[in-house]
Amino acid sequence: MSSMKYEDMRAKIENIVNQPIRKFKTEELKGIINRYHKNHPKSKAAYERAKKIIPGGVEHNLAFNHPFPLTSKRVYECYMETIDNIVLTDYLMCGGPIILGHQYKPLIDKVIEVIQELGPCHGITNEYEYMAAEQLQKYFPSCKIIRWLQSGTEADMLAIRIARTFTNRKWIIKIGGSYHGWSDQLVYDMHVPGTKLLESHGIPKNVFKWTDSSPPNDIETLKQMFKEKRKVAAVIIEPMGGESGSIPVKPGFNKEVEELCHENKTLMISDEVVCAFRLSMQGGQGYFDYTPDISVFGKIVGHGFPSAAAIGGRADVMSVCAGGVSGGKKAYSGGTLAANPLTCAAAYYAMKYVEETNASEKAIKAATRLSTGLNKLFEDYNLPWFSYNYGATVHFHTSCLFGLDLGDSQQAGELPKRKDFMGEMGAALVDQELISVAGSRFYTCMLHTNEIIDETIQKIDKICQKIE
């Protein structure tokens, strides 16, 4: 973890939010965009073709979008090669799950063996199912019983269903700005705290009758909500804070949530989708030292292989979770592809290899070096920007979109401009042959060596020179 204190992070966010954004020099931005068009003609053509048949021409929230998305050809080690044969140093890492590096040969070999010898999907139980669950439980002892699912969205959806069935209560409280997938009841107050129903088109309002949100890091408001709502089934958190720590969590806040939940016989759900193995081998709960009742896992458990997710928790809580048709009071869940041998084998071996290679520690070391180097750079250029890392996730705040207060009309009006700047920053990073998440986040893996990190810092130095 970078040495920056929470108070300093908050002060720096406030500082950025309360001043006009630092922009690119006009000529420099023009150059970045022109080169982008010139260097990526095949990606541009692919986008034009995709637009005819795919909504918006792009299906991935992470696919970089300004001035148009890139199309990849292949990934290997810590690189992504596009169809224009441009090799980018990859800090997208498939949105977080890649810690061993892309195409880690021992893992690929095991998965190929499963496909060739066992077949990828059977529709009934295979021994990899419980082997992978036992492996996951090793790092997450709070998960006494584990069920495999197909995505983080599904796992969060089932978590709130289990919580309501077990407690016989209806209210679910989430923390404003946190992301828990795109199921109906959780598309509420996402990305930026205070957005409430902003992104919930196509979902009838009454679906949110029993969902509410509390501002980040505000235990007093949460306590007040408990008094008003009285019977709360569960509180769901992102351990590092909203948007994978873009809205940093206050030290001790997660523990306070746990205590508040237990005082009120409410369940605490820890969404470990981006924390497991990346923040620490024990995820957010190990790192911040709290014990949730239910934990949710997504893409990270399968190291980027498809259809990977899980939910685990206390044995009594998980006892209400049933597969298929069953008698009694059960939280229904299904999924023919869930727990398929390919995904479970990938998860089993990925977890083993991550532990054996110390991949998390190596990725964390790279992330700390990167965030420390960036902060020195921003100081040298007298920019208000700053960086910090939670484990192997590096945040890089320039326009500080996530720090806006939407209750303040002046700040709310800044949202589109600050979002556009993040897009321009993404283009500037690609111009330096780097790919990140939304121009504001870097995921490191064990193959990001000191040399690669130092080279990345030099490239971002060049970007700083292009700012007014």
CATH superfamily caption of the largest domain: Type I PLP-dependent aspartate aminotransferase-like (Major domain)
Shape: globular
CATH class of the largest domain: Alpha Beta
Let me know the number of strands: 16
Summarize the structure in words:
The longest helix has 22 residues, at 359-380. The protein has 2 domains: 6-100 and 358-464, Aspartate Aminotransferase, domain 1 (Alpha-Beta Complex); 105-356, Aspartate Aminotransferase, domain 2, CATH 3.40.640. Helix 2 (26-39) packs across helix 15, helix 5 runs parallel beside helix 12 (341-356) and helix 13 (359-380) runs parallel beside helix 16. The chain has a 7-stranded mixed sheet with strand order 4-10-9-8-7-5-6, sandwiched between helices. A 4-stranded mixed sheet has the order 1-2-3-15. The model has no long low-confidence stretch (mean pLDDT 94). The protein contains 16 helices and 16 strands. Helix 10 (283-288) links the parallel strand 8 and strand 9. It is an alpha/beta fold and 468 residues long.
Give a short summary of the structure.
The chain is α/β, with parallel strands linked by helices and 468 residues long. It has helices at residues 6-17, 26-39, 41-53, 105-118, 128-139, 152-167, 219-229, 242-245, 253-263, 283-288, 315-318, 341-356, 359-380, 409-412, 415-431, 450-464, and strands spanning 72-76, 79-82, 87-90, 145-149, 171-175, 211-214, 232-237, 267-271, 294-297, 309-313, 321-323, 331-333, 386-390, 393-397, 434-435, 441-443.
